[in-house]
Each structure stands twice: as C-alpha cells, then as structure tokens.
From TrEMBL:
Keywords: Membrane, Transmembrane, Transmembrane helix. Residues 125-208 are annotated as: Disordered. The chain crosses the membrane at residues 29-52, 64-84, 104-121. It comes from the Bacteria. This is Uncharacterized protein.
C-alpha cells in the first residue's frame, strides 16, 4: 500500500513539473505577472470600495434585493473574460464554444426570479402562506375527573363526625340497650317458680 501511495505522489509531481515547464516555454511569464497584479489592485481599489458604497446606498432596499445585486455583480465579474473573448483563437474554435452572453443573461434572470419569489412570500399574509394546513382547534383545559373510588377523608373533629355521614363503608353499631341488672325488678315479670305458668291470674274462688 505504501508503494502505491509513493507511486501516485511521484506521478503527480511529475505532471506538475511538466505543466510548469510548458507554461514557461509557451507563454510569456511577464504577462501572467501583470495579470496577477492587475487583479489584486482591481479588487482592492475598485471592487471592494464599489461594494461598500453600493451597500451604503442600498441599505434601505432590503436584504433580498441587496443579495441579488451582490450575486449579479459576482456573476458578471466571473463571466467578464468569457464575454470579452480572452483566449479565443481562430485556429482553435473549441476554446470558447458557447454563447456566454446568453448564459449570463439566463443566470442573472434566475437569480432575480428567486429574489422576487422570496420577496413575494415575505409580504404575503400568514393565511395565504399555508392554505392546506388548517389550524388545529385549541384543546380544552384539563379538569381532574371526580373518581368515585377516591377515598373520603373523615373529619377529625367530634362535631364533624356527628354531622357528616360515614362513607368508609362500615355500618354504625346498633344502639346500646340498658343493662337489666341495673333496673329494679318488675312485679309483673317475676313469677313463682313452683306456680304453673298461665296467661292470666284468676281471682280466688270463695268457699260455698
């Protein structure tokens, strides 16, 4: 695996060396130097100040339209060498084979169409933005259900115990009966054990 990596790196370095030699042999290096310096100076002295001034002037335009202007400026600068025909040769018709003005116009039109769509959706009222989704009705407030199985707490005071009925499920004890030992003996209920029991006492018969 290491040998394969070394071979790939060596092949890449060889290709870079061949390209550098051909670049110096076929093209004047001074022209590339002038081009690089012109690009740097043009960016620092022309493009950057123009962008800052444009941003100041178009501050009230909105972020959507300002972004569309910035993207359009970048596209124009990128397509400028193709629009001016740099590198076009009569002996090599495949160098710049496309219609670059038409391509730039279509790209800029697409950028501004997207910007217009964003601005339109932002200014629409909320009910026009989503027609398919209806707002869900508000949920009713949660009320605790009165469960019959909830144990009832008995009051702790004696008065409350007498007034409120018991709900614990136990029956009240029967009323207490007075003890018969404490009552005086009744003459009607006491009978002679040797006397036969009868329903009524007959009066004594007189001797004839």
């Amino acid at each position: 695996m290491t040998a394969v990596r070394v071979g790939l790196v060596a092949a890449g370095l060889a290709a870079l060396g061949y390209g550098a030699v051909r670049l110096v042999a076929d093209v004047d290096p001074l022209w590339y130097l002038v081009f690089a310096v012109a690009v740097l100076l043009g960016h620092d002295l022309v493009v950057a100040p123009a962008v800052l001034v444009t941003g100041r002037l178009l501050r009230g335009l909105g972020r959507i339209w300002t972004g569309a202007l910035v993207v359009t400026a970048v596209l124009v600068l990128y397509a400028l060498p193709y629009l001016l025909g740099f590198g076009r040769r009569a002996t090599n018709p495949s160098a710049l084979p496309l219609d670059y003005p038409v391509g730039l116009a279509g790209t800029v039109a697409a950028v501004w169409a997207v910007a217009a769509l964003l601005a339109l959706t932002r200014h629409l009222p909320p009910r026009h933005r989503s027609r398919t989704t209806a707002p869900s009705p508000p949920s009713p407030p949660h009320t605790p259900d009165a469960s019959p199985s909830t144990p009832h707490t008995r009051p702790s005071t004696p008065d409350a115990l007498d007034e409120s009925p018991s709900t614990s499920g136990t029956t009240d004890p029967p009323p207490s009966t007075p003890d018969t030992a404490d009552l005086p003996p009744s003459t009607s209920d006491t009978a002679d054990p040797q006397r036969p029991a009868s329903s009524t006492d007959e009066p004594p018969r007189s001797a004839r």
